[in-house]
Structure formats: C-alpha cells, structure tokens
Amino acid sequence: MTGFNLYAALEIYQAGLLFYFIAVNIVYLALFLISLSAIVDYLHHKGYRNAQEVLRSRLTPPISVLVPAHNEAVSIVASVRSLLQLNYPEYEVIVINDGSTDRTLQALTEAFGLRKTKRVYHRTLPTAEVRGLYAGAKTFPWVTLTVIDKEKGGKADALNAGINVSQYPLFCSVDADSILERDSLLRVVMPFMERFAVMMGVGGIVRVANGCAISDGFVQRIRLPRRWLPCFQAVEYLRAFLSGRVAWSRMNGLLILSGAFSLFRKDPVLAAGGYQRGSVGEDMDLVVRLHMNAAGRSGPREIAFVPDPVCWTEVPESFKTLWRQRNRWHRGLGQSLAGHASLIFNPRFGLIGIFAAPYFWFVEFLSPVIELSGYAVFALSWALGSVRWDAFAAFLILSILMGVNLSLLAVLLEEFTLHRYPRIRDLLKLLACAVAENLGYRQFVSLARLHGLIDWLRNETLWGSMDRKGLQSAALFLGLLATACLCRASMALNAGLGYEDFSFAGAGRSSWIRVDRRLSRGSISGGLTRIERFGEREAQGELGLGARLGPSAGLELGASASPEAHILPEWSAAAVLYWNPRRPVTISPGLRSAGFRAAGVHTASLGIEAQAAPGLAVLVRGFGSVTQFRGSRAEDWTPAVLLALRAQPMDWLLVAPSFAYREESFEAGAPGSGISRTFQAHAARLDLSAGRERGWAARAAWEYERRVPKNFVRRYELGLSYRF
Length: 724
What we know:
Layout: H1 2-46, H2 51-56, E1 63-69, H3 76-83, E2 91-98, H4 104-112, E3 114-116, E4 130-136, E5 143-150, H5 155-165, E6 170-174, E7 178-180, H6 184-188, H7 190-194, E8 199-208, E9 213-215, E10 218-221, H8 228-250, E11 261-265, H9 266-271, H10 282-294, E12 302-313, H11 319-339, H12 351-365, H13 367-384, H14 389-418, H15 424-457, E13 490-502, E14 506-519, E15 522-533, E16 536-550, E17 553-561, E18 571-582, E19 585-595, E20 599-613, E21 616-629, E22 635-650, E23 653-667, E24 676-691, E25 695-707, E26 711-723
Parallel strand pairs: 1-2, 1-6, 2-5, 8-12
Antiparallel strand pairs: 3-4, 4-5, 6-11, 7-12, 8-11, 9-10, 13-14, 13-26, 14-15, 15-16, 16-17, 17-18, 18-19, 19-20, 20-21, 21-22, 22-23, 23-24, 24-25, 25-26
Helix pairs in contact: 1-8, 1-13, 1-14, 8-14, 8-15, 10-11, 11-12, 11-15, 13-15, 14-15
C-alpha cells in the first residue's frame, strides 16, 4: 500500500510539474511578444525624439549621479572619469565611499585632486556616520564631483547618504564597477521630460563589459567575452532585460530597476523613506515601496524601462564569484517579496497585485525549487522503475528546449532591433551560448539561487565579496590603457598625402607614414615624411615621446632629422609641458629649437586651452621666435598667435577650425651678410576627422595662408589611420 501511494504521489507531482512548466512558458512567450511590440514602438518613436534636443532644451532637469563604492579601488577612477564626461547639460557626480578598507579614497584623491570641505551634512535620511565631504578640484564647468567618506553601512545606506547630499530633483544610481555611454542620461531622462509629474523611476538596460575595448572611461569597441561563463551571462542579461523588463514596463507592472543604472525622482523616494537600510535587494525593495505608496493616490504613477540607454558592467568570470552574486540576488528577491507580502493577489494595487507580484513569487522566486525538484523526482522515478517517459520527454522539452527557444528569441530580438554586437562572429557565439547555457550553466545558477533561498530562510544578510579585475583590463588584448603600471599598448598606423600651391613657386607635394603606440603612462611615436618643394626632394625622420608626470601634468618630447636638408631643418627638438590647474583649463608652455642651413630658430610658446562646453574646446597659443643667422650676430625676433576651436558634434566626427597670425624672417643678402627681411602671414585652416576610437578613421584638412603683401599658399591634406 505504501509503495502504491509513493508511485501515485510521484505521478501527481510529475503532472503538476508539467502543468507548471506549460503555464510558465506560456507566460514567457506572452512577455516576449509584448516586449517585441514595445521595442518596435520605441524604435519607431525614437526617430522623433532627438537626444540633442534634450541636450539643448532649457527644460531638461538636472541630475545627481550617485555612485556607492566599497573596496572599488580597481575600477572607481575609470568609472568616475567616464561619468564626468557624460553628454548632459547639468549634473553632479556624488561618490559615496562606504567604509572602504582598500585605496578607494586615495585613488580618487590622486586622480581628481580631492580636498576636504566644510560643507554641512544634513541627515534627511538616517545613515551611518559621515567622516567628511570632499570636492574634486579637477572637474568640468557643467559638472561637479563630491565624495562622501562614511562608515560602512551597506549599499542602501550609502545611497541614502548620497540623496542627503544631492541638490537636484532627479538622482541616478550607478554601480562603481559600471560605465555609462555618453548619451545614457539624455535617453533615460526622456520619460521624465514627457511625464515628469507621473514618472517615479526609469531604468536602463545593463550589458556585459567583459571583452569590450574600454579606453578613457568609455566603451570604444563592443565585443563578446572570450570566456564562456561571462558569455552565458550576456545572453542571460539580454533575456532578462529585453524579454522581461520591457514587457513589465509596457504594462506598468515593473517591480525592479537595476541598481547598476536607474533614475528616480527624489520627492517620492523621500516620501517612501529612501532605501531600506540593511536590505540585500535595495533596488527592488525601493521600487515595490514606490508602487505601494502611489496606490490609491489621485492620478497615475509609473515606473518605466528604456531599452536604449546602456550601462556596461563587469560580470563574474569565476563560478565562485557568480555563486555569491546569484545567492545574494535571490536573498534580496525573497527579502523584498516577503516584506511586501500584502501585494500578492491584492486588487487594490491593480496589475501589480493581480499579476506581477504572483509572477515574481511563483516564477522568479520558487522556480529553482520546482525545477531542481523536477530533476530529482524524475531521477527517483527512474530508480524505482516508474518513470513516465512521455512525461519525462514533455518535461525535457518544456524545461530545456523552451529555455533554448526563449534565449534564441532574445538574441534575435537584440540583433534585429538594437544590434549592439556588429560582428557576425559575436552573433554566432551568442546563438551558441543561448543553446549551451541550458546544459549545465542554468542548473548551476538554479543551485545558487536555491542556496540563496535557504540562506534567506536562515535570515542571512551578508553581502558577499565580488572579485574585480577592473574595467580597463577587459581590453588588454587590444592594447588599451590599464590602471596599474606599464601594460600592453594600443598601436595606430597613419598615412597621408598633401598638396601645396604656392603663388610664387608653383606646386609642392608631401607624403607621410607614422606609427603611434600608446602606453599606460605615456606614448611613443615615429614617422617618416617626404616633401617635394621648390624643386627639392627631402625626407625627414621623426621621433616623439610622451609621459604622464602625475594626475594633472604631462610632458611631450619630439625630435626630427633630415640627412640632406635644404628647405627642412637639419634637426629639431621640442618639449611641451601640459598642466591642468583646474579640470577644464590646460596650460601648455613649450620650447622648440630647429637648425636650418641658413639659421637657427628658437621658439618659446604658451598655450591655454579651455573646455567651453560638452564637445567644444578653445585653444589660444602665443609664440615668440628668435632667428640666429649663420656667420652673423644678427638676430630677429618674430611673434605669432594661434586661435583654434575643436568641436565634436557627434562622437565619430571632429571639426577643428583655426586662425593664425605670424611673422617670419629670412636671409635676403649673401650668405653670412646678416641682411634679413620679415614678412607677415595670415592663415585659416579647417581640419575634419571622421572615425571611431578603434578601427579606420579619415582626416582631411584645408589651409589658406596669405602672405603680405600679395603672395598666398593653399594646402590640401588627406590621411587615413587604423588603430588596433
């Protein structure tokens, strides 16, 4: 009788599992179809909403960017540097050093010249003790940097401290190991621009940065990771964001915004009491409380998700770190759901109570228990010889093949809509991962989530450490800058042709080839230039060195030599020192000496460059030259001045007009006579560069120089470069 009851129980459980997986997969498919419709509509309306209009609008609300950091010395400088260069009209960056025991605060101080301020800390939301407030000396006019140094209180406590210090109506939470794209804030703020009084929060998509080429705090080239474990997570992120959160946002039933990148209106957050201190899943907990506080109030309240603004984050590359992360995520999910259990099946909260909350309980939270128990039940049934092979086949199809199908659909949705992975190789690898992740990886994650559920039942609140390699190190194989000592270098090949038209001496031609190699603490370059001018053909070799002397200073050295020089200098040497006393201003004094056959020329210069606005820089440079003629004591002093603009209207286009005035001396009498003449010249030049930081780039230049009284020179240049 006992055996019969056991067999019957196993069959009933198998039937229940089949019903559960059928229902879950129907829900998944429905969410995918809703997401597909929402993304297509978003891309359609995106053409009518230009991010540049948001940038220029006077109605664009300012934003406080909050960056909680605990032991993030490896990646914090690169992350903050990228945040200081975002394309947004007015914002502030607030870094919260939450009791770090490594060099997080020291790294920030060295990189941004932090100084302690006497600013008063107002404890609007309760937080752990704040030890000091620091201001960054090296920032831009449109953004300020503030660093809060406090006792450790956890991520939620750190975000509350950032809210207390923030001065703007919107705040954006960004993880310290994450990097935003330049226009991310412009795109994520659009729902607030359209419905400010209604919108409570907006989230953006998070993508995997491992394997991408990262330079100067920004993702320059998008690539999949070479290792399979982070690749599986890339597929998982696509499925979660594009097939899940987009759909819930469309139905106004979104219960979670990623803590790595989310934008909130400060007033409803303060009314909800801020982030729940001690919460492991502070991001979901806040969103749920915002929904609950908004229920029953007059007028609609929304929390949205935008699939376009991208945040790049480093994901675990070891199973140990991945286990800790997924364990913590599942504990946070259980903590948030249990703390707001009144939501479930409560019609007072509309769709969130009737559908969203039950979904997160029975699908997201309990799915590892049901899935792993299904494997165990079928294994037990097989051992007892009572397995129903039709039920087992249906279970296999629903649990694995449908999972493969959903992952493939998510990858194809990404490819045919957003298309952020340009290489066919990456697409094929994503499709392979969408299949392979269901054969071991998904079961491993389910075990980690099950362990997290057990830890939640035991009231375990430990955060769990995350091993970081640093965002810069993700691109070492491409030779980009690293954060520690000398590393591999990026290399660029440049080649070009030039044409000159002299009103007094006919045409001239030039060609050049150059190799640049960028190191973590400087650069090295070499090149060869060939010139045909005034009936002469000459070649010149060049060598350049650059070195960083600290966080705010650098030195560039250059030298050239021509073996048989007539019109070019036989030799030249130059040195330019760059110094940033304040972030938007660069002062660059320089010296140059050149030895011509007829004279030696020694030039001193001083340049001041200022960052006038996002993507616009102004340079003013003055020159004073002393010419010493061979065999004579005569010396001539001549001045020159240069005004240059550098504008970057788009991230792939650089426009640089410049205007110059100079005087130049030449020997008019017999060699050694000391008789010289001076002429004046006015020049206008336009440089255009098009291309990305990595790969092919093109450069074109036009220059017109008028020499008093009537001579002129026209120059045309065209160059191509490729950076590895």
